[in-house]
Design a protein that fits this description.
It is built from 13 helices and twelve strands. The protein is an alpha+beta fold and 387 residues long. Strand 3, helix 2 and strand 4 form a beta-alpha-beta unit. It is globular, with a radius of gyration of 20 Å. It holds the Pfam family Thiolase_N. Belongs to the thiolase-like superfamily. Thiolase family.
Amino acid sequence: MSEAYIIDAVRTAVGKRGGSLAEVHSADLGGHVLAAVVRRAGVDPAAVDDVILGCTDTLGSQAGDIARTAWLVAGLPETVPGVTVDRQCGSSQQALHFAAQAVMSGTQDLVVAGGVQNMSAVPISAAMLVGQQYGFSTPFAESPGWRTRYGDQEISQFRSAEMIAERWDIPRDRMEEFALASHERAHAATAEGRFSREIEPLVLDDGSAFATDECPRRTSLEKMAGLEPLAPGGRITAGVASQICDGAGAVLVASERAVAEHGLRPRARVHHLTVRGDDPVWMLTGPIAATEHALARAGMSIDEIDLVECNEAFASVVLAWMAEIGAGHEKVNVNGGAIALGHPIGATGVRLMTTLLGELERSGGRYGLQVMCEGGGQANVTIIERL
């Protein structure tokens, strides 16, 4: 089986809801990073075998197979196809998995994987709600088959985050401390230029270059303590949740043959890929079992992992994962996470990978692990080895 190598990884800076990227068409947003990653790698874009992009709520500006349209609006060769993947929050991480698997199988040699999401233009869960607006079918949790299996209960990431906080006995103030650390780490990483290499500046209509993440806040424990919980009497507030935002990212994956033929210099090797399912009612607990499975299959322990990117959908998700896996915060989300940097759903997987790769190189670490909770009670795990 062929190895799969990550040649390069780029992303846009993340725009806050209603911010700098709000008016950028999703296809142009995706096209920007697709063009950038092949240009940075120095490969002929016509040599790319496929383009795989993650995106959810594929309506309006995100409809019509955005992987294909984003490639075309970027002025890239018409001979290269594209396909769009929806595994909810893990969509672009799954795109990377599909790209790596295509290369490992020997059926393709150069694949671009990535993700795009403009949550300002297409609101979260729009695809689930639009049917009701036009009198179409109801959301999945209202289907007779679903109700037979899981009953008539709320299926919600917010409820799941609350349930996790209760089950793992994570107090609100502990989550707020974690959230504050996310913001502080993101500000420090920005000030130190840790994101500079991974961000491809995007020229906006006013001629300015958008190159700095907009979401990190100057907040405090006192400010977060004043926020109302999302559920009456609950522990989860907006302050300990990921931010709605806009962004895109892309990685170029190559086979050993492509590396030799195109004179490429890989930055990392894909060491292991896992995707697992879990209880869809609990939903966000998926990363725990998926990480245990991935480490077992890879023959590794968490102590052998130098850096971790565990998506901060909610503080409770990461804190429960850390407790079960035995990972210390000193190597988890060291440059901040989605609470500070935002969670452009279809693009977050690749955003995490670009940051993980860059930080492994900066710190000299060898192995990095990325894991995300996903709608439906799923989780992807990717382990990479820096080269």
